[in-house]
Design goal:
The protein has 266 residues and is α+β, with helices and mostly antiparallel strands. It has nine helices and eight strands. The chain is globular and about 60 Å long.
């Protein structure tokens, strides 16, 4: 549960939800009202295949400081200190994007071809090996150590942590040319946490924003719970520092609003 923190806060973990996955189960507001958990099964087939290709374990994914509008209009922001006790790993880039969407020395990058970018299973064995080796070479396998390495990254490449959250390009390159390649965008330098565990939605929650449509659905689902049924959601909804109405119904607006709040913390 969230509590008061002295500013500046660390750059938090962020997870955006709200769009359906082709695998079926996904965290709708109705489901979260009765079972407030993010499950590792909440992923697309494409993500599951990419995990296998890249040598990643079954994971639940969080960005560090990035609210991605492609994933939905419910945005959950978490205390990054929690992850120090998780099993999992971290990378200084989006792992899914490394297959064809991120350009770096030694990678096929965006010249790979649309079909292979979208469907990692269609890669040749040699191409799979290239991507796997790149990810494994940059992977931090002890989540107890990712935070100081991320802090070093910020100190080296940015004047202010808020610049990173604003998606500004790093001031200097990484050894493989990933940061400054003109065809890369923020996924090429946004850090990602791969948690090898499911996560209680309200555990360590600092901030939650939803589109007005999703907020109405959640409140209605909570009101429809059996009379007397306890729900930790009411405490969260009653805390205006955590859960406040969002003025924008479009997912990009919700995500942008969350990032503006995070920037104000830093």
């Amino acid at each position: 549960m969230a509590e008061d923190f002295d500013k500046p806060r660390k750059v938090p973990l962020v997870r955006a939800e709200g769009f359906s996955y082709d695998t079926g189960q996904h965290p709708t507001p109705q489901r979260l009202a009765t079972d407030p958990r993010f499950l590792r099964s909440f992923k697309s087939t494409r993500t599951a295949v990419a995990e296998e290709v890249l040598g990643l374990d079954d994971s639940l994914y969080f960005y560090v400081g990035y609210a991605c509008p492609r994933f939905g209009d419910m945005v959950f922001v978490y205390d990054p200190a929690l992850s120090a006790n998780w099993t999992g790993s971290a990378t200084p880039f989006d792992t899914g994007g490394i297959i064809g969407y991120i350009h770096a020395n030694g990678l096929p990058g965006k010249d790979l071809g649309g079909e292979k970018c979208r469907h990692a299973a269609s890669l040749s064995d040699g191409e799979k090996a290239i991507f796997r080796e790149y990810v494994q070479a940059h992977r931090i396998v002890d989540l107890g150590t990712w935070q100081p390495k991320f802090d070093t990254f910020l100190a080296t490449h940015y004047d202010r942590a808020a610049d990173y959250v604003r998606a500004e390009r790093p001031k200097s390159d990484d050894p493989t040319g990933r940061h400054l390649h003109p065809r890369n965008d923020r996924e090429a330098w946004t850090w990602e946490i791969q948690a090898h565990r499911d996560h209680g939605v309200l555990d360590g929650l600092w901030l939650l924003r939803m589109s007005p449509e999703k907020e109405l659905i959640l409140r209605t689902a909570l009101e429809d719970l059996p009379e007397g049924a306890p729900s930790p959601w009411w405490q969260v909804i009653g805390d205006g520092n955590i859960f406040a109405p969002c003025s924008e119904s479009e997912s990009k607006g919700v995500c942008g609003e969350v990032e503006r709040v995070i920037q104000s913390w830093l």
